[in-house]
Records
---
Amino acid sequence: MAQRKSGSTAQGCGCLALIVLLVIGGISWAWGEVFGSHPVASSAPQQAAATHASNAPGPPADPCGKKPWPRPVPRRAIGQTLARASASDLRCFNLGAAYAPSGRNIMNAPSNAAHRWRIVQISPAPGTLVRAGTALTLRLKLAHPPAAAAAPSPPSPPAASPPPASQVSCYPLSDEGTCYKPGEYCRDSDQGMTGVAGDGESIICEDNDGLRWEPTG
C-alpha cells in the first residue's frame, strides 16, 4: 500500500513539472508576440518603405508660386520674340491678346507663328504692378521683316538719232536757211564772199546788176 502511494506521488510530480514547462513556454511565446521578440525582421520592411518614400520624386515645383502678387510687368519682355517671352519672363502672366500691325490676334495663330513676332509694346506698361490673372495686351512686329524689293532701274533713254546728213554742204545760207543758187541776190554783208551753191557749184557775191551770187568759174 505504501509503495502504491509512493508511485502515485512521483507520477503527480512529473505531470506538474510538465505543466510548468508548458506554461513557461507559452509565456515566452506570448512575450515575444507582444513585445517583439524579432525586432530586425519586423522593422526591416518599414525601414525599406520609409527609404523608398523619401527617394521618390515629388511633384514639380511651381515656378509661378515663388513670388507674391501683385508683380511688375517685366520690362525685359520688350524686344523678345513672343515664343521666348511666353516661356520665360511672361510665363506666369495672363496673355490676353497679341496683335500684329494688321490687327490680327496672333494668340489664335498656330504655335509656330510665335517665333516670327517680336514684342514692341505691353499694356499695362512694363513696371506696372498687376494681380494674378490680369490680362496683358501685346503689340507685335515681324522679327525678320522681308527685304524690300529693289526699285527697278529707270529705262535707258533712247539713243539719239543722228541728224540727217545734208545732201549738199552749202554756205552761206539765206535768211530762210536755204542754199543759194547762182544768180540769186546776196546780202550787202556777203559782198566779195565766196561760197557753195546748193548744187555744189562755187559762187561769189559780186555786183552784176545788183549784188548776186555768181559762179566763180
Note: The radius of gyration is 62 Å.
---
Amino acid sequence: MHRRWYWVLATVMVLAMAATLEPVFRPGSRSRTGEDLPWQITRTGDTVEVFGLTLGETTLAGAIDKLGQRYELALFLDRDHTPSLEAYFRAVSLGGLSARMVLNLDLRRDILRHLPGADAPGKPMPSGSRRFALPETPPLAVARAPIVALTYVPVASFDQDLVERHFGLPAERLRGTDTIRHWLYPELGLAISWEDGQAVFHYVRPTAFSQLRDRLLSTTDVTADASNVLDDARHHGRGWLRVVWPGDRSLA
C-alpha cells in the first residue's frame, strides 16, 4: 500500500515538474503551421501586428508568453550614451518557420540607467557601444515595457523572388554599403535587408518608418553588437545586421 502511494506521488511530482519546466525548454511559440508568418502583417491605425505581437502595445511579458521563455535581456549604451533595451530570443518557431528574434523595448531613460546590472563596466561592442547583461528574471517595469520594434532573422533562405511572391514589390529599394540591400514597405512598417544572402526583417510602427529608413542608410556593420547574437551568427557562419533602435520614450 505504501509503495503504491509512493509511485502515485512520484508520478504527480514528475508531471508537475514537466509542466513547470516545459515553457523554459521549449524553443518556440504558441503558433500553428501557416499562422504567424512574416508576411502576415495587419495594420491598425498607426501600428501593426505581426507574429501575434502588436508594436507599441504588446509587452515583454506578452511576448514571452507567445515566444517562450528562452531569451536574454541586454542593455546597450551607444557612443552618444543613448540607452536601449533588447530581448533576444535565440530560437523561436512561428508558423512552422524557425528563426531568431530581437525585440526592442520602450522604457524611460531614467529607468534604463537604474536597471540591475546597468552600473557594471559593460562589454565593449564592435560598433562602439557597450553591452550590459541583465538578470534572467526581468524587473516588473521591464516585463511591462511595450515592444517598439522587432527584428526577425529566419533560418530558411528568403531570396528576392520569394519575398516578392509573399510581400509584393517594395515601395522603394535601397543599396547600402558593400553588399547590403534593402526593400522598403513603409505602409506596413517593414524593411527587409539582405547581406551575403541572409535576409533580416525589421518591423516598426509605420509612423516611425522614416527613422528606420535613416538608420538603414547609415548601417555599415553587419555583425551583431549583442555578444550572444554575434556568437550565434558566427557559429552558423552568418552575419547579423543590427539596427540600433532606442525606442520612443527613452529619448525623452
Note: The longest strand covers residues 83-94.
